Amino acid sequence: MTVKVKVENLTKIFGRHPKATLKKLKGGLTKEEILKQTGHTVGINNVSFDVNDGEMFVIMGLSGSGKSTLIRCLNMLNVPTEGSIEVNGEDIVKYNKQELREFRQKKVAMVFQHFGLLTHRTVIRNVEYGLEIRGVPKEERYEKAKNMLATVGLEGWEDKYPSELSGGMQQRVGLARALANDPDILLMDEPFSALDPLIRRDMQLELLDIQAKLKKTIIFITHDVNEAFKLGDRVAVMKDGVIEQIGTPEEILANPVNEYIENFVQDVDKSKVVQAKHILFKPSALVSIKDGLKVAVKEMKTNGISSVFVVDSERKLRGLVTIDDTIKAMQDGKTLKDILIKDYFTTDPETYVQDLISKASSSKYPIAVVDETDKFMGIIMRVSVLSALT
Amino acid sequence: MQQLLFMGSFPEAITFKVGIYVDWLVKWLMHNFGDIFNAISDGILWVLLKIEEFLLWVPWWGILLVIFLLGWRYKKITAGLLYAFLVLLIGSFGLWGYMMSTLSVVLTSVVISLIVGIPIGILMTYKDKLEIIVKPTLDAMQTMPGFVYLIPAVLLFGMGMVPAVIATTVYAIPPVIRLTNLGIKNVSKEMVEAAHSFGSSNWQTLYKVQLPQALPTIMTGINQTTMMALSMVVICSMIGARGLGMEVLIAINRIDIARGFESGVSIVILAIIIDRITQGIVNRHKVPQQ
Q1: Which of B186, B188, B189, B197 should we substitute to test contact with A (largest number of A Cβ atoms within 10 Å)?
Q2: Which of A44, A358, B166, B174 is 20 to 30 A from residue A373's alpha carbon, by CA?
Q3: Do A287 and A309 touch, CB atoms closer than 8 A?
Q4: How far is B74 from chain A, CA to nearest CA, in Å?
Q5: Which domains, ranges and CATH numbers included, belong to chain B?
Q6: Which domains, and CATH codes, for chain A?
Q7: What is the complex's ipTM, to 2 decimals?
Q8: How close is the nearest chain B Cα to the Cα of A102, in Å?
Q9: How many CB pairs under 8 A join A and B?
């Protein structure tokens, strides 16, 4: 994995004398003290992070946490007071006007919360805008824009004005406009916050689809924890201009570094984040197919359980036996192979708990977790599915 | 004596004649910069005469046709017919030529106002210092009665059409500056950010995003500037501007009610038609918002 964007010690202060204020900030004054003393606002304070190539990196925070300031630094709409932003190894903060324009034209595109569409232009002319600025010939940019509109599902709307479209459709235009430029990096500033919940869900799924196809590096801003955890490969949580924690959604859920994040992740719909691999446990009782019935009975008795999974020598799952069947088989002289039950559910480790709920409630046996080669990895008790949700 | 000084009429002993210094200043200006004023004067006069020449060259029915078409396009067909009839009425008063003189001063002033005003309005949004200077100046200009502008115009350019154009321009320019400024400032911040985020230069952002978005507001400014120019051009008859205003002035001096009524009505007609048509253009240029 190569690092695409490397942000180091980035600080942005708004006001008339940011440099002088920076010294005070470094001198240990807090954000509130600086605002009181100097009237300067500290947007972001000494932020560092990396974004990998092809990654969806989500920056999450409440309003005023500096997330919008941060993303605007990444294409220099906000000029940072201090720090560096390396994209493909080049520090864009040091770019001159011409280099910066070129960078914006070719490497990066932005999607805005309130769409930022040009209301005096038709939909297709909006999508063409970036190409127009780059000086792409008319026919070529028309073709590209048309294709991109088709990609986002807006065929036939080319000659309408943005005001004639619904919010969701307008944001599709915004997305198409950004993608038409074929940028390496896509900056999305709360793109779905202005949409109603159903449309938002559709757009999220669509974004994931598009991302799977195009493999852009996406930096995504949101204040919605569920959105962050649903979309993000990694998530950074911001508060008061500082990044509190960076990690995968599971890491943050499992180990919130402080109380703030704990509170934050409280209303996460965990069923959409927690996967089978997080709640499986390796049972102490496991029977090999070569073992006899006696071993199976002993395993169940010592562990106080009524059924046990059976694997072969390569740990591939063969089936399940119950204590009743085993004792009966001992009397009838059958072998372990004859009494294997197969009507339990299996799942792969990447499945979300959300999709396990129905399985868990309709089966009397635990769910077996197997990897793609059918190797047994562990079991999920029905009760742990429920406890994962709380 | 003392009682007189404090209680009576203003004491003659306190005198300060400023007029003489202004007189010197004007003479000094004319002496040193006379050529510049002459050049400006010649330039304006040339434009003015060309416009007037053109307006008189167009056959009378041609003018009526244009007014009808404009009324039809930007209002409705009945409006077009009404406007054409009203202008026909002015002609039937025997005031056709005067109307064209008035119109040519208005047009010249409006054109100069736009050429000077729109760039100032745009620059003000970017240069805070310019805004600090221009805003109070505009406030002062708009509180002053139009009458006052005649004095410097006459002092520097003498009598006639040219000082009329100058005074009219100065009087009429504030709305277009203000509304251009307002229009550009009111363009949604996100739209401007979007334009920049795609690597547009300031110039590209201006003519691809800000100006088209601000157009309806700027058009309103043009409408107001035109209306103010029309009102000023009537006052400018006092410094020798030919036209409908001159007719009114003469009628007042001679207490000639018939002549005064006809020319007065003609001015009103002209004002209404220009206002309606430019309003119509403004409404046609509304930008659809989200």
Answers
A1: B197
A2: A358
A3: yes
A4: 20
A5: 13-57+93-284 (1.10.3720.10)
A6: 3-107+183-268 (3.40.50.300), 277-388 (3.10.580.10)
A7: 0.75
A8: 7
A9: 80
